[in-house]
Design brief:
Radius of gyration: 32 Å
Largest sheet: 3 strands, antiparallel
Oligomer: single chain
Number of helices: 2
Strand order of the largest sheet: 1-6-5
Number of strands: 20
Strand content: over 45%
Structural class: mainly beta
Helix content: under 10%
Distance between the termini: 22 Å
Order of helices and strands: EEEEEEEEEEEEEEEEEEEHHE
Length: 512
């Protein structure tokens, strides 16, 4: 018996690596000559910076440096000082196999830092940071949506899925001279620089994705060494880039990610004015995965009306991009600080960690922790540093309409501020942007092939035109038709009905 199998090609995203790599930091170094002696260490920070990441064969190589920044009080004036040191690192990870046209995602997290002043000029530092690495690539598959052949009956399940059209990633460098302006106090030296990115919007064109974003720069610096005066400067740089992805059309939906790999800020004095100039440089990566929504039918069952047959099945999962979440959220907390009172808050920095999301009871729950880092002065005007962890949880109402929900969260901490609430407590207000790409994943049993034994005809009562059949509640016409070697369409026509599932007990005429 001749029959033909019709397959529909589809492309899915395959994660070939999703894990973390821990890097140790073990240093023993002395302060440079221009730095005064250490009276008290306020904070030792590790800032991992990635200079390059590339795939060769089945290996991913990551190069970068761990920038160590020591903020301390000097011996002479108890003023805030800063000393920096750079330690290079190199990481290689094994992938599942050789991949092409992959996109790479990395995030860094400092696990711990222990810093000890062996002498007023010599430091012993031990710590570790982790690099969270995810690598995605395209994977071609196919599903059987039809089988043509005489007497073959098919059961189809209509569905939708998001087909990956293409994915691309590119790196670029942002260079800008930033004028602090005449109203901002002069910069003696920089204590800390934080650079974050924020996606504004994107637009798809033929074979291109146009991305608009912005880089947010926050600089903590000392404006007066004599008195240890600390000031904050903020600046925003617009970003506009085009990511080339073959196959992208105007109606595609994209998952766009903008990330800062490294940054550097240096002070330059403008000879023509009294203002400081800052030479800013940052390497940024933009990735985009483009999807096209498609309608299809999964061939879930099949049989022959004339011969004994045996179908072959496989379990397949089809993913559909359900929605995009982009919601503001304000978190407020009161935290206690063990100190000799609080007279002034110099700086507040928030660091996100342990971000998780999951679907529960008609909602998607986002949770995580904010490490609130506070630089302040006590009642005796002596600077001190304090860190506290606060937890947050945000609920986004979401109607679940699939077997499972996959959520690719992207939570951004836009700002973290605090004000003195008492002698030893502060109120922390954190502004977050809850972002996520939500995917619906449905599992199906799909036909892959059918074996028809032409030497075993199915037994039929050729002397009977109709058979009377009494149905049970919720019985499917498909199973009845299969049993009596007929078709669902013939049963519907004979009984003048439209439904595929029967409600209650009924009497059916089965055409033979």
């Amino acid at each position: 018996m001749d029959y033909s199998i019709k397959r529909e090609p589809l492309c899915i995203s395959e994660t070939v690596f999703d894990s973390l790599v821990e890097q140790p930091v073990d240093l023993d170094f002395s302060l440079p000559d221009y730095c005064p002696d250490i009276q008290r260490i306020l904070k030792c920070q590790i800032c991992p910076q990635i200079s390059s990441r590339n795939i060769s064969g089945d290996k991913l190589y990551i190069e970068g440096s761990a920038d160590i920044s020591l903020i301390y009080l000097d011996v002479e004036k108890m003023s805030i000082r800063c000393c920096e040191h750079t330690s290079p690192f190199s990481v290689s990870v094994n992938l599942k196999g050789s991949v092409q046209d992959a996109v790479i995602f990395t995030k860094t997290k400092v696990e711990y830092v222990n810093c000890r002043a062996v002498t007023p000029r010599r430091l012993d530092i031990h710590g570790a940071f982790s690099i969270f690495v995810k690598v995605k690539c395209k994977k071609d598959k196919s599903i059987v949506y039809d089988i043509d052949g005489e007497g073959i009956q098919k059961k189809k399940t209509p569905t939708k899925y998001s087909n990956i059209v293409g994915m691309g990633q590119q790196y670029f460098t942002v260079n800008e001279m930033i004028d602090k302006g005449s109203k901002q106090p002069d910069i003696e030296y920089i204590l800390k620089t934080i650079v974050t990115t924020e996606l504004q919007d994107y637009k798809t064109l033929t074979n291109k994705v146009m991305v608009n974003a912005q880089a947010n720069i926050r600089i903590l610096y000392v404006s007066d060494i004599e008195y240890g005066t600390v000031d904050i400067m903020e600046h925003t740089i617009p970003i506009s880039q085009i990511v080339d992805i073959e196959g992208v059309e105007d109606d595609c939906i994209c998952d766009v990610n903008v990330e800062v790999l490294n940054h550097d800020v240096n002070i330059r004095q403008d000879e023509d004015s009294e203002s400081n100039l800052l030479a800013f440089e940052s390497k940024i990566g933009i990735s985009a995965i483009a999807y096209a929504e498609k309608d299809t039918s999964v061939l879930s069952d099949v049989y022959s009306m004339d011969y004994e047959s045996e179908p072959k099945y496989e379990n397949i999962s089809l993913t559909s991009l359900n929605s995009t979440i982009n919601e503001p959220y304000i978190s407020k907390s009161i935290i206690e600080i063990s100190s000799n009172g609080i007279s002034e808050i110099l700086d507040v920095i928030g660091e996100l960690s342990n971000i998780k999301s999951f679907a529960k009871d008609g909602a998607i729950i986002f949770s995580g922790k904010i490490n609130v880092c506070i630089l302040a002065k006590d009642a005796e005007e002596i600077p001190f540093y304090s860190e506290r962890l606060i937890e947050f949880e945000y609920q986004y109402d979401f109607e679940r309409n699939s077997d499972s929900i996959l959520c690719e969260e992207n939570v951004i901490l836009k700002s973290c501020d605090c004000k003195i609430n008492g002698q030893n407590s502060v109120e922390v207000v954190s502004e977050l942007q809850i972002g996520a790409m939500v995917y619906s994943e449905n599992d199906y049993m799909s036909i892959t092939d059918i074996y028809i034994d032409e030497e075993k005809p199915r037994k039929k009562d050729k002397n009977t035109a109709l058979t009377i059949y009494y149905t049970d509640n919720d019985e499917e016409l498909w199973n009845i038709a299969r049993k009596y070697c007929t078709s669902v369409e013939k049963i519907k026509e004979e009984n003048d009905m439209d439904d595929d599932t029967l409600q209650g007990r009924n009497m059916l005429f089965i055409p033979m």
